[in-house]
Amino acid sequence: MSVQLEPELPTEVMEGVERGTEAPAWRHRHLLDTDVLSRTDLDLVMRTTDAMKEVLRRPIATVPALRGWNLTLLFYEASTRTRVSFEVAGKNLSANVVNIATGASSVTKGESLLDTIRTLEALGTRLLVIRHSVSGAPYLAARHFSGHVLNAGDGLHAHPTQALLDLYTLREHFGSNLTGRKVVILGDVLHSRVARSNIWTLTAAGADLWLCGPSTLLRGFETWARAGARGGRFTVTSDLRAALRDADAVMALRIQRERMSAGLLPSLWEYADRFGLTADRLALARPDVLVMHPGPMNEGVEIAPDVAAGPHSVITDQVANGVAVRMAVLQLLAGRVG
Questions:
Q1: Using one digit for the tens of pLDDT, what is the confidence trace for 7-43?
Q2: What would the pLDDT profile of 155-209 be if each residue is shown by its tens digit?
Q3: What whole-number distance in Å separates Cα of residue 8 and Cα of residue 134?
Q4: CA atoms 159, 173, 235, 287: torsion sign
Q5: Domain 11-158+320-333: CATH architecture, name and number where available
Q6: What whole-number distance in Å separates Cα of residue 198 and Cα of residue 333?
């Protein structure tokens, strides 16, 4: 079903993992979205992630690259995959990791985001990973924080490391050249920060990107398609059969139950009946199609349980790759070779 890469890791990358030297060609102080990443940037992140995967295969998967660095995870929203993988990534790089649950912090007493950031900076934080329900919150943090800010998801806007691990998972199975590969993002695109960040990475990588779902959940994306994002092929449609036909990969998005009060869908049942990713529908895709999902899943709604756990699924690969990708990005942001 897949072509496993045997990456030839650049010498400077592997040596940098051990020594912590300057990163070639990395020019970004923060990572707030993927729209600022060139194809060269993406290739560097992918090569750095290859190196981190090598580290993770060792009996003791720890390197001293970020020893002495204070990393704070500031999550204003609930999270399992993203928060835990960032914590594991930081510890694997030997950073001092502090995990803040805002429900048990001074936020509950009315402390503002800026006051919290100033407090964390005064306490020695140099790397700040932030997830917030308000779009743009990490950008505000970046303007007032002297260290490095990494967006772990903000409102409906962006989720850059999820898009990077999705790209890495695709390259792991299809090879480094995704030009012409048909990738379908299916579901609630309108409310998906994952979809927005993936649009930038996948079109930059040359994929033939399709967004599919009910028309009410695709509003505004036709403009992106006409603009061509970064020049890659980009199609927006509610024709599920056309989208799935000969697809190389299908990423189902969570139907966000909290949005149903807006009247964008008649019911979850109707969505599942018309757009749910089932085995019969997946048969329209290529025989080696990959099934992806950023999680958490509503099985039986946007994706059938047998598809989520079936032979085409790489959902657990996405989760595992999240640690290596986040190790890579943390080290690059800190000004080290990844």
A1: 334 455 555 555 544 445 799 999 999 999 999 999 9
A2: 999 999 999 999 999 999 999 999 999 999 999 999 999 999 999 999 999 999 9
A3: 41
A4: negative
A5: 3-Layer(aba) Sandwich (3.40)
A6: 20
**Burial class of residue 305 in the structure, from the number of CB atoms within 10 Å of its CB (0-12 exposed, 13-18 middle, 19+ buried):** exposed
DSSP assignment of 15-63, as one string?
A: HHHHH--PPTT---S-BS-STT--HHHHHHHHHHHHHHHHHHTSSS---
Q: Is 57 exposed, middle or buried (0-12, 13-18, 19+ CB in 10 A)?
A: exposed
d(CA 214, CA 236) in angstroms, rounded, equals: 11
Contact status, residue 243 vs residue 274, Cβ threshold 8 Å: no
219 residue type, one letter: R
97, β-bridge pairs: 71
CATH number belonging to domain 160-318: 3.40.50.1370
Given pLDDT bands bounded at 50, 70 and 90, which one contains residue 105?
Answer: low
Q: With bands split at pLDDT 50, 70 and 90, how would you rate the model's confidence at 231? A: low
Boundaries of CATH 3.40.50.1370 in the chain? Answer: 11-158+320-333, 160-318
Q: Which amino acid is located at 130 in the chain?
A: I
257: its two tokens: 């139950």
